[in-house]
């Protein structure tokens, strides 16, 4: 494996004063008006751009090239940004929701106009392939459409009162300041899910993106701030504070942040969840997945095999919904594995900016180590490697990609099927697929449900009895329960999220918007008496 650069991305001072970006990177950044000649970019926006904290480096995962150095938020700038966000909330909370919807519609138009360019930036900075980079921006566009409609449909309820001359209303109001802490693997869409719904609900949002994808957050914030400015709204309606763990911790601990929407690992999510709970704040957690596909003997293999291939290898195995476990009925297992191996043999690593590429890099040098660990775990359990397992040779890569972080997609058969074993129980964020064989559906469902995580799951069958069992009380315990659809990816219309150690959070569609509101039960007495509920009598 090519370990071109150390995993660290923080630096205290900037050593070089000039940099010559490759034409490949310059073209992508210039198309979004991101300067390519100054060394340092401001990484904080609260109505004005600034940044005087530590520097973070944006590194291209495909080449190892430093794309930019970004000035993060100092503690003072962070607190200032939280104050500005609160002021912005006070400014927009009384704006009629459909008016906020009109702002979201304009944001949607501005994002759509830059869809290809932003998609290319996602590919350049995160490493996902071109079609997925553009698809991620499209997801932001889609959720804006959804939020525009939502802005006219965020209805409360009128509830029948037991007391004469009384009405009970359940009323949604804006919540306040919503902080969005996001992961590296969806550097645009996760913010989009939150911003659009949160803004429709009347909140101001402060974004703390992954420290390894600051350019995506700067580009998105510039597009949104231009819309806010055009409409005479404070920029801090959609503010940005780049930074690492320190900035994240300070955001999470701030009593001035009403809700923390956190997307990331189980490890950090556990810390964040406890910290927010300790101050009785509101947390929405979207954490790791360890997603299984189950293939029954009657499955349509020409559909199932490519779906598992995309689920396990797409995004270089770095989606929260990536397929990490494959449970094959023993009657079709040899055939399925041999078909899958042929597809694995056909995929070659390439430049994610090249639209013909299907396999881009993993995101960092650290991810290469995670890939190795996943393979070692399987071997340590007495297992075997069925495909892959070795690093790419330099000759497998074009010369400009030899400083990049490319991991060979791998299939392993652990030596145990015990879901408690680390070879099965942990999410390894890399393209390693673990395989086992089962004899009946109940056994496969028990394995599906036996891990700590509960994000996505997929059953392949044509038998209605299996479908009923899978989606019912005895079925999958995940937040996403698919039939003849892979584990990876989802549409925005349904609420997205997972159960158990995935955090129980729900974002995007469905009823997810309700979490971004402050709900009140309002009992209104329009009678000439003041009766107590439950017939309680208290004469005074
Ligand atoms: P991560 O947990 O390392 O980082 C996520 C964010 O938390 C980053 O912005 C980081 O700077 C910040 N952070 C780190 N330490 C912190 C602390 N102590 N307090 C506050 N913030 C802190 O995750 P990652 O490596 O960027 O992303 C990969 C993970 O995200 C995977 O586990 C993946 O499954 C998960 N993920 C989940 C979903 C979902 O919807 N369920 C979506 C995308 C990614």
Automatic annotation (TrEMBL):
Query: What is this organism's lineage?
Result: Eukaryota, Fungi, Dikarya, Basidiomycota, Agaricomycotina
This protein's name: NAD-aldehyde dehydrogenase
Q: At the top level of its lineage, which domain of life is listed?
A: Eukaryota
């Amino acid at each position: 494996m090519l370990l071109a650069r150390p995993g660290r991305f923080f630096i205290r001072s900037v050593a070089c004063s000039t940099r010559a970006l490759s034409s490949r990177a310059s073209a992508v950044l210039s198309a979004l008006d991101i300067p390519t000649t100054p060394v340092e970019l401001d990484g904080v926006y609260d109505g004005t751009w600034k940044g005087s904290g530590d520097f973070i480096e944006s590194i291209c995962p495909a080449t190892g090239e430093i794309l930019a150095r970004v000035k993060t938020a100092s503690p003072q700038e962070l607190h200032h940004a939280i104050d500005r966000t609160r002021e912005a909330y006070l400014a927009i909370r009384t704006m009629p929701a459909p008016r906020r919807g009109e702002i979201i519609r304009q944001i949607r138009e501005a994002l759509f106009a830059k869809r290809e360019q932003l998609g290319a930036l996602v590919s350049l900075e995160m490493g996902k392939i071109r079609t997925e980079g553009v698809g991620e921006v499209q997801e932001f566009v889609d959720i804006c459409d959804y939020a525009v409609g939502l802005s006219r449909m965020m209805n409360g309820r009128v509830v029948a009162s037991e007391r004469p001359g009384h009405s009970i209303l359940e009323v949604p109001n804006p919540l306040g300041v919503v902080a969005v802490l996001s992961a590296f693997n969806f550097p645009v869409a996760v913010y989009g899910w939150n911003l659009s719904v949160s803004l429709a609900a009347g909140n101001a949002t402060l974004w703390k993106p992954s420290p390894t994808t600051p350019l995506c957050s700067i580009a998105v914030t510039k597009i949104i701030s231009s819309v806010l400015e055009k409409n005479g709204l404070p920029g801090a309606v959609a503010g940005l504070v780049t930074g690492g763990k320190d900035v994240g911790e300070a955001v999470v601990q701030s009593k001035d942040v009403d809700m923390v929407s956190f997307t990331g690992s189980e490890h950090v999510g556990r810390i964040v969840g406890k910290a927010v709970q300790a101050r009785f704040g509101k947390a929405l957690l979207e954490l790791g997945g360890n997603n299984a596909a189950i293939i029954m003997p009657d499955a349509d293999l020409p559909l199932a095999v490519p779906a598992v291939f995309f689920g396990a290898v797409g995004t270089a195995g770095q989606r929260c919904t990536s397929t990490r476990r494959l449970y094959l009925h023993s009657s079709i297992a040899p055939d399925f594995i041999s078909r899958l191996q042929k597809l694995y043999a056909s995929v070659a690593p390439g430049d994610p900016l090249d639209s013909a590429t299907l396999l881009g890099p993993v995101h960092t040098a650290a991810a290469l180590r995670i890939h190795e660990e996943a393979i070692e775990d399987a071997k340590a359990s007495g297992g075997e490697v069925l495909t892959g397992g070795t690093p790419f040779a330099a000759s497998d890569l074009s010369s400009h990609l030899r400083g990049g972080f490319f991991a060979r997609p791998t299939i392993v058969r652990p030596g145990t099927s015990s879901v408690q074993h680390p070879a099965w129980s942990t999410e390894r964020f890399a393209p390693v697929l673990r395989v086992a064989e089962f004899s009946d559906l109940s056994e496969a469902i028990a394995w599906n449900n036996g891990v700590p995580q509960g994000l996505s799951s997929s059953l392949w069958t044509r038998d209605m009895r299996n479908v009923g069992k899978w989606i019912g009380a005895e079925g999958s315990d995940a937040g996403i329960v698919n039939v003849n659809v892979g584990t990876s990816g989802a549409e925005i219309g349904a609420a997205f999220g997972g159960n158990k150690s995935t955090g129980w959070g729900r974002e995007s569609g469905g009823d997810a918007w309700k979490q971004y509101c402050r709900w009140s039960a309002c009992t209104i007495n329009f009678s000439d008496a003041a009766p107590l509920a439950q017939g309680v009598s208290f004469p005074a």
